[in-house]
User: What shape does this take?
Amino acid sequence: MGLDYQLVLWNKHKKTYDKIIVVSMLLYLILFAAITLVFNSETSLETLVLRAFGSLAIVLLHVILVIGPLSRMNTRFLPILYNRRHLGVSMFITALIHGGFALIQFHALGDTNLFYSLFTSNLDYNTLTNFPFQVLGFFALLILFVMASTSHDFFLKNLSPTVWKRLHMLVYLAYALIIAHVFLGAFQQETSIFTIGFLIVGFLIIGSLHIISSFREAKIDKFIAHKDVQGWLKVCTIEEIDDDRAKIFTVQNERIAVFKYDGKLSAVHNVCKHQGGPLGEGKIIDGCITCPWHGYQYLPHNGQSPPPFTEKVATYELKLVENVVYINPKAFEEGTEVEPTLF
Amino acid sequence: MTSGLRKAHKYSWLLLAIIIPLIMFFALKDVSLSSGNDSATSFEPSKEPILKMVENDVIKVSLLSNSIEIILKRTLKNASSIAYISDLSGNKNQIIGQLSTVGVYRFNMETLPKSIILYDELKGELITKLDF
Assistant: This one.
């Protein structure tokens, strides 16, 4: 959490992860160049640069796309999710070098505007073997640019987390465009079972992880609580919730996190105001609900971020009958004080 | 995430699970995994009997039984080199295909064209014209 906007919000952990990202990228580029020079020594420098940065961008995109579902399935991946934004910007810079270099290499040497040349030099849209694949890469790069340039808390706050998240879901369209760009471009010119296999296996892994995790999420949403005579919903017994942790329930299409801490129970809306992280998968740290994604904090009894922060989430009323927890499905206004239920 | 975003994620991936394999399948359908060259270009002229042949310093065009073979003799400076069937006055009638590097290009064609032109669509200029 930060009060002021900074160009890059670094802390000790992010610096460590960024160093790992930079070193890994450099190692990949050096290794790629070395292997190319050994096995294909006639490759020109321009081709080497294009292929090294293009393939690195694809590898990074694969890593980025598996982080989300992996961290939904296993909390050990959450620290990587915390640093995903910097990885995304690094991927964009790599793709920009590839795309920019290709644009200059293939379109800047004529007497027409290089963008005009990009869109008109090949108009063979009715064939797959000679499809204008560079146009697909250009549109993917455009999406990555929009995403990288809005990868900042300033845009997140001003666009609203929902709009921001929807905007950043365009990465899936960019992924499809990049797959088409490579399959209709590079693979038509120079076919290798290894590179084709990498992208096919990569797609199978990414696609399966996303689909499995989305079906697991849908299963949680299908939870139906029993109503008592006053309309309260019976959700669980108190023993089912671990200390300083929460259990998540879906009530009227919204998820609610019921936290157990210091002999008390409190319930808040499960969606963090920062990036929509699942608060109920976080824990109570220093008396505050702490979002597992980026560490945003809220007080459990009123859903307010501790001063001087101003984020607020909706709160819910709970009651305990013997050891069974009931929830009133009607949400209070965000930040409303609710007396915790004691046990 | 809100329930709307969760649904959007789910349906996006269900859609991609259909679209991406289709892209991969159709893109690789005609690709030969044993050859590094694309299917339109080779460096070996056809051994089929040539019905008619014309040439100039840029291209050599041979009409085969059901296809046309264009040999690009030298690298062109034009970024865009499209081959068209044309009439004798040089009007473009039908696209044959695009030529890029030096090599042999083969295109399916059943009737004898009167004339063939190479045209630079970017500069809007005629590169060369061959009459049969």
Notes: Residues 37 and 111 of chain A are 33 Å apart (CA to CA).
